[in-house]
Specification:
single chain; Aldehyde Dehydrogenase, Chain A, domain 2; 7-stranded mixed sheet; 6-stranded mixed sheet; 14 helices; 37% helix; binds NADPH dihydro-nicotinamide-adenine-dinucleotide phosphate; binds 3-phosphoglyceric acid; cytoplasm; Aldehyde_DH_dom; glyceraldehyde-3-phosphate dehydrogenase (NADP+) (non-phosphorylating) activity; NADP-dependent glyceraldehyde-3-phosphate dehydrogenase; lactaldehyde dehydrogenase (NAD+) activity
Amino acid sequence: MAAGTGLFAEILDGDVYKYYADGEWKKSASGKSVAIINPTTRKTQYKVQACSQEEVNKVMDLAKSAQKLWAKTPLWKRAELLHKAAAILKEHKAPIAECLVKEIAKPAKDAVTEVVRSGDLVSYTAEEGVRILGEGKFLVSDSFPGNERTKYCLTSKIPLGVILAIPPFNYPVNLAVSKIAPALIAGNSIVLKPPTQGAVSALHMVHCFHLAGFPKGLINCVTGKGSEIGDFLTMHPGVNCISFTGGDTGIAISKKAGMIPLQMELGGKDACIVLEDADLDLVAANIIKGGFSYSGQRCTAVKVVLVMESAADALVEKVKAKVAKLTVGPPEDDCDITPVVSESSANFIEGLVLDAKEKGATFCQEYKREGNLIWPLLLDNVRPDMRIAWEEPFGPVLPVIRINSVEEGIHHCNASNFGLQGCVFTKDVNKAIMISDAMETGTVQINSAPARGPDHFPFQGIKDSGIGSQGITNSINMMTKVKTTVINLPSPSYTMG
Ligand SMILES: NC(=O)C1=CN([C@@H]2O[C@H](COP(=O)(O)OP(=O)(O)OC[C@H]3O[C@@H](n4cnc5c(N)ncnc54)[C@H](OP(=O)(O)O)[C@@H]3O)[C@@H](O)[C@H]2O)C=CC1
Ligand SMILES: O=C(O)[C@H](O)COP(=O)(O)O
């Protein structure tokens, strides 16, 4: 079954995909649509509705009333529907993966993996939610000095209300369900604003939730350019929480949003610190996986290598040899390196490369670009005065900085405005733990490349990399607030007294 056909035919109207509200697929009254450019062909691949502000207002009202009913739905029923959606998602992985290939040039194999991983995330969330939301806390007053046991305190986790979920282009399905599933199991409703490039993948995913039979109005998906409809959404009074993943757009949103909980997973400049005793074959393999998977378009990609001078020549040679074996071409052929998501992204990456060239970096390969396709490039002898030492290319270009001490590596890592993940390679685990303690990042991987997965691990950025902690359990908890009920007794009650 291809995208927009069979079960998915109802989400398409002519050549424009509909938006989803009140349990139905709708055409926007705006009469406008947004073109989605295929990064490989650089031609329009799909079109989605440009929803109007009136339609957003309507969706917010629908989401609010649906949430009130959903909060009264037993946990086991919420979980049952999530398991159904997960199964449908995995059953239809092929058409959804096809959209990922066409919209964001994700290699075909990785596209299928993203959909299956998303189904697994939804199911795991259902199970985890039933457990952690099925228990609260019971406190007694006499544990605090001066009190008798005359007060029983019952605390529980209750939903926030309407969650506005805004995922980025690079995981438009996985980073959407990583917000949707925790929100739903916790009793919230969802308004999803998918990335423009990735929107059709997201709409197909939403249809799987629709087919699972969730109540009308509980899940809604409005499409349109973030630059046009984004502010109206994030500042909407009907929103009770924003869960955002993306670039520094998130910082701007955090300045505009009202008094509501924010979950922000933003950019990263994940540093890879390599000590002289590291297993260089292991390091080289992880630099390739970490630095060049999905053409470096991952927030957790290795974005700067900080290698001890004594090991640098040998490491660079090993990485060069592996770069030479990377396949470059269209996502349909499962190439390792595929076109980056847009011309503007490719131009940004090129700007960093030219800056590095002008300032004297060593080019381990010739710089080569054809349209949005940029060949993998390792830059050696990068110095801190070069932009690429600090900025996030979000592309297949990786800088190597040679260091003469561990402290120098840690300093560079901590001098970044980002603080998402980092990694350190050494055989000395005690030293690795000390370095991890010193690195100002949300996560440090020891002897492996940075990664968000597996999806139940806590995942958080600090500084300009984000607010709050995600990963299934933490995401569920972040989508709740505490409710306390205190029972006041006429006289102290010491059971078993
Ligand atoms: N920390 C993490 O887990 C991740 C971080 N990232 C970071 O995101 C960047 C690349 O992803 P990208 O999608 O381009 O990031 P963007 O920040 O450009 O977009 C992220 C989302 O925000 C939407 N958006 C854009 N403008 C607004 C606005 N004013 N109000 C509300 N929403 C808006 C976008 O919609 P539209 O597409 O219509 O513009 C998209 O859905 C990189 O910096 C990368 O590091 C990416 C993935 C994960
Ligand atoms: O934001 C991203 O790019 C993803 O969170 C990366 O996820 P991964 O490390 O599991 O690929």
